[in-house]
Amino acid sequence: MRGLELVFFAILLVLATLQVAISHGEQPLSRIAVHNTRLRLSENADIRASPSILGLKGQNSEWVTLEYASPNPSNDDWIGVFSPADFSASTCNPDEGSKQSPPFLCTAPIKYQYANYSSPGYRKEGKGSLRLQLINQRSDFSFVLFSGGLANVVAVSNKVAFTNPNAPVYPRLAQGKMWNEMTVTWTSGYGINEAEPFVEWGRKDGDLMRSPAGTLTFNRNSMCGAPARTVGWRDPGFIHTSFLKELWPNSVYTYKLGHKLFNGTYVWSQVYQFRASPYPGQSSVQRVVIFGDMGKDEADGSNEYNNYQRGSLNTTKQLIEDLKNIDIVFHIGDICYANGYLSQWDQFTAQVEPIASTVPYMIASGNHERDWPGTGSFYGNSDSGGECGVLAETMFYVPAENRAKFWYSTDYGMFRFCIADTEHDWREGTEQYKFIEHCLASADRQKQPWLIFLAHRVLGYSSGTWYAEEGSFEEPMGRESLQKLWQKYKVDIAMYGHVHNYERTCPIYQNICTSKEKFYYKGTLNGTIHVVAGGGGASLADFTPINTTWSYFKDHDYGFVKLTAFDHSNLLFEYKKSRDGKVYDSFKISRDYRDILACTVDSCPSMTLAS
Ligand SMILES: [Fe+2]
């Protein structure tokens, strides 16, 4: 009975945390009345899951079928998925949790669904079945039926587990600090005291070699607050990064993840492949996809905390379908919206695996990765759910000097990308401002004519409702100090997320369009084109009804941007909707590199509104 009491108190706490989650979008279980919570385990209730062993053929994602029965069924009955399967309070950290008396539940359900979701007769018959998709994430699972009132546990299922829960999974590529270096980051359950992690790789049809990987992890105390430190905490396992060096430009490589256990046996992932990046300045067709705010969603229709990225599965699907025509991806902040429910990072890395294991998946930091009061973020809000950047800085590699300061530059052939970190101060006089100027100034435009500035919050221009109401049409203090850099170094395009829609401006400087052309730019732009590409998947944001002269195209829908550099003189910009992958806005730039050389002190044109 003691165990049941633990569950009971645990559920109370979970339900309390649901209150936080309901403030965002759809949460079907938001109607749970916490004050009505009662314990009513029933001998006549039952829930069973099958199969109980998953991944027999090496899969890291599989469907399970649940069969369940309750003597007092209702339309509010629901099923929670718990992992680890043993979710009693015995594993709780007594220092964490709410101010209520222990025992606490250590983990929130990783996802949940109504009992009648796929069994319309459940309420009458008291029987139902449900199919759910599970991913391999280092632990076993159990399923809990809540019936006869939203907060009554009536049955707990058998345990379900993958054959090897520790298996190396979800590789994500990222460009290294050198142009000819690819980094591979993955997750496993093997610490450095159990196995040596490495990547076995080589050119297609060539010899294979092995490169060692570093291993990182963190603990509950690395989190800055709840829910990441409390019910949202879940052991992250181990995150490994290997550096594959001296790659041949554009060559195709195969690779697989390995762990050599200390008993001499090996554990392997499946085989993946990627194409090495071009030499900076190299002329070849280069295709770049950019978007922000994608998040993740459950393919089985179930819900989880912060479940408001309904567009994300479509975006992911379009990118996978077009993957042969994509060379590198930039996801510019608001990566997975785990917001302190750590299990969701596994889910996100599983969702993007087909993309991130094949092309470099470069990320920027957003408010949902970083912001937490009193932790050095520029904004003192709680958008990261207590993660305060630790998850983003560990789960993905970026070639930053200091991964906690999330700004970096990276080259891809004829492109130079300068990625800013809007969750740290960017204004003149800061460390980041110096970096941005250096990144822009050090691009050799004869070799790298396409200079792109990326950041999460809109430092340029946006007609998003909130910015318009503020009267700023930008993140407050966004462009004041940066626009002279964009202008001086002739940045072609500046792109942002954060506002969940699509918008493109004219080439612009200090609120004034520097060209009236909309679709085909020849020669210098005289300004920078600003683009919001925040429609990756999170619930859409409205535009102000105010029309500005600088806003050339607005779309209240999910989508992403694709840039294609054909050569040093021709760039194609396309905006595609996630629903069909078709192009809904586009423009071209054709020009010579001489048009875009940075001016020197005496040759700079006047840069005031009057000019
Ligand atoms: Fe954001």
UniProtKB/TrEMBL annotation:
**What sequence ranges are listed for the domain Purple acid phosphatase Fn3-like?**
47-164
The name on file for this protein is: Purple acid phosphatase
TM region(s), chain numbering: none
Q: Which reactions are catalysed by this chain?
A: a phosphate monoester + H2O = an alcohol + phosphate
EC number(s) recorded for this UniProt protein = 3.1.3.2
The Purple acid phosphatase C-terminal domain is annotated at 527-586
What InterPro entries does the database record attribute to this sequence? Calcineurin-like_PHP (IPR004843), Fn3_PAP (IPR040974), Metallo-depent_PP-like (IPR029052), MPP_PAP (IPR041792), PAPs_C (IPR025733), PAPs_N (IPR015914), Purple_acid_Pase-like_N (IPR008963)
Carries keyword Signal?
Answer: yes
User: A Gene Ontology molecular-function term?
Assistant: metal ion binding
Q: Which residues form the signal peptide?
A: 1-25
Q: Where is the Purple acid phosphatase N-terminal domain?
A: 171-275
Question: Which EC class is this protein assigned?
Answer: hydrolase
